[in-house]
Amino acid sequence: MLVMSANLDDQRVAGLINGEVVTGDGGLHPVARHFVPAAGRADTQSVTGRLVHKALQDHQGDVLVFLPGMRAMRRLMEQLDDAPAELMLLHGDMPAAQQQRILLPEKGHGRRVILATDIAETSLTIEGVSVVVDSGLARKPVFDPNTGLTWLQTSRISRASAAQRAGRAGRLGPGACYRAWTEQQHEQMEAHITPEILQADLSSLVLEAALWGITDAADVKWLDRPPGSNWQQAVELMRGLEALDEQGRISGMGKQMAGMALHPRLAHMLLSAAPRDVPMAADMAAILSERDPLRSAPGQRSADLSQRMLALQDYRAGNKNQQQLNKYALRSIRQLSQRLQRQAGNRQSHAESASPAALLSLAFPERIAARRKGSDGRFLMASGRGAFLPIDDPLAASDYLAIAHVDAGAREGRVALALALGLGEIHKIHGHRMQRRETLYWDNRRQAVAAREEQWLGKLLLTSLPVKPVSEQAAMRVLMDALYQLGMESFKWSKPALQLQARCQLIASLQPESDWPDLSSARLLETLDQWLLPWIAGFRSLKQIQTLDMHKILISMLSWQQQQQLDQLLPVKWRTPSGCAFAISYEDPQSPVLAVPLQEMYGAAENPELANARVKVLLQLLSPAGRPLQITNDLAHFWDNAYKQVQKEMKGRYPKHHWPDDPAHAQPVRLKKHLG
User: Fold this and answer.
1) Own/partner pairs for 377-381, CB < 8 Å, 24+ apart?
2) Distance CA 17, CA 675 (A)
3) Based on the domain organization, do 458 and 311 belong to the same domain?
4) What domain range includes position 455?
5) DSSP E strands, 43-136
């Protein structure tokens, strides 16, 4: 076996095949190599422009300039506007005939500066070129397995690529190469380019391997083993396209796909089309496989794939005079479409007819996209990635898109080719991929648990309809979560319930060694799951929650013995010397209050005491009309001092009432009936 290459890692290849390395000088003519000085810093674009001027000044012949892409080429053209030479572009989007005119110019042509991408790096001899200016940059496709997208990355070339580029200056005679980097930087460059298998979409490779019975990348002896993540992503894609079964073995569909000279995605689309749709599917596959037939600048082209399909129809009809169309690309597209139609035309299919967008979505199901609410031009794909279109693009206002090409941007990729897609088509074509979920949530407007049945395609919510909650457990969880947020204030607290809560707090503070439950609002909220669930079976709303008897619930948390002890130590009411019972307020658990007519307290010398004399009740003494006269925690001191002034005022206001001089030993007067 003989392996020949100018830039392969020869030692690794030799190790793979157990061969020997034979090295030969492949250079036709000597090429002088010049590096920029280490001193001074400038951007690569400026340095490259200065080197072109120097090359034109110091040498004869045409100058070939290597740049990473079209944007850099246009910027340099502006920088070289005054150069004493014709400026020309050489790139892959040019028609073959135009490329040929650059490679083989007419005799007697003037001096040229040819700005080229790495298309001119290998296998090309350009007549007249004796000088190369190398920016040292290239744009290479990099596949991201996390998104399933490929993006172009501008990066430094390898030393092997630099040698290839320099060699273009020595094809026809001695030449020179100017490099826009220092000699020190040159030594730090990678020896060889990163193998494509390490950063490419492996879909075609996985399908080809499965055709040979290989289901595991570890079963193959690789020069560079493909990354496991990229391989697995490709496997999952092939399963989704029905090319592989669950064990990774090739299916009947997969064998048909492998027999077509197409990317597996496009092959699946073509093979899934109904017989009457095959020409349309073949046209789309050809357009997506060849160069864009629209001549406008990439950033100015509409992403609407239908425009390309109409251009192809016009071309077939003989309308070939449109200035904005690349006729060479259209010719290639037409030829490829014809071949694909022949390949797919002799098969049996029971598929139903579908729109172009629906067929396109079969090739790129994870790129089906929905427009974000209230934002034309911004979309979310089924994969979960964002995508965008310029606001003036005809597709920007579409509700749904079938996207074929999209740049892998950091947050959102720009859509390059797509078709408007209908929601009904998504349901019809991808119904088997959808997930149905019941989503329960708290409806703040209704203050109740609500449910919606949702249909999802990947990360896209396609439909959402209100339904009755099915899962009792899930509905209860939503209700409980809402109550956690609303707090204990959302419950309807009666006065007896509040009093009981306060009494329990007080007795717990008096008997810390006992096992009195903590009925504080904070603790009740923390333990909702423990005490509330038995009381709310079937509940769905806050209105139902507010029907609960909180006093009944709280009292149930006390044992019978605790209830008896609580009533004994901290009673709800207290009887005055007259025999009337008045409610004790425990609003402040640390200082209970008894509001009572002053005359009901005749004959009492001290404030009431609770909990075996550990708690003194604060007295709020009232007039016969129920108005506050005095608040005291020392009744004896009040009788001996402040009472005299009160007695004087009350005699004048209520002369018919008894106002004794010695109230501590007087007979009490029952006034409760007068106070309601």
Assistant:
1) 378/412, 379/403, 379/415, 380/459, 380/460, 381/406, 381/458, 381/459, 381/460
2) 110
3) no
4) 373-470
5) 62-66, 86-90, 112-116, 129-134
Does the predicted TM-score (pTM) go above 0.85? no
Same domain, 505 and 432: no
Give CA–CA dist 191/436, Å, rounded. 53
The residue from 537, 559, 581 where one domain ends is 559
Instruction: Give the span between the Cα atoms of 372 and 457, in whole angstroms.
Output: 15
Pairing mode, if any, of strands 400-406 and 386-388? unpaired
- In a shared domain, residues 637 and 586: yes
Say how far apart CA 87 and CA 76 lie, in whole Å: 10
Give SS3 for 41: coil
The 10s digit of each residue's pLDDT in 192-208 is 888 888 888 899 999 99
Helix (H) or strand (E) holding 331: helix 327-344
Spatial distance between the Cα atoms of 226 and 222, rounded to a whole number of angstroms? 8
Q: Is residue 339 part of a domain?
A: yes
Pairwise CA distance, residues 593 & 266, whole Å: 84
Q: Is residue 360 part of a domain?
A: no
What is the predicted pLDDT for the residue at 404?
94
Cβ neighbours of residue 551 closer than 8 Å, sequence gap 6 or more: 494, 496, 497, 500
Note whether residue 566 is domain-resident: no
Q: What is the DSSP letter of 378?
A: E
Lookup result for tokens 């492996």: 202
Separation of alpha carbons 638 and 649, rounded Å:
15
Report how far Cα 644 is from the mean position of its chain's Cα atoms. 79
Token pair recorded at residue 125: 């001899």
Report CA dihedral (457, 462, 468, 471) to the nearest 10 degrees.
20
pLDDT, one tens digit per residue, over 629-651 is: 999 999 999 999 999 999 999 99
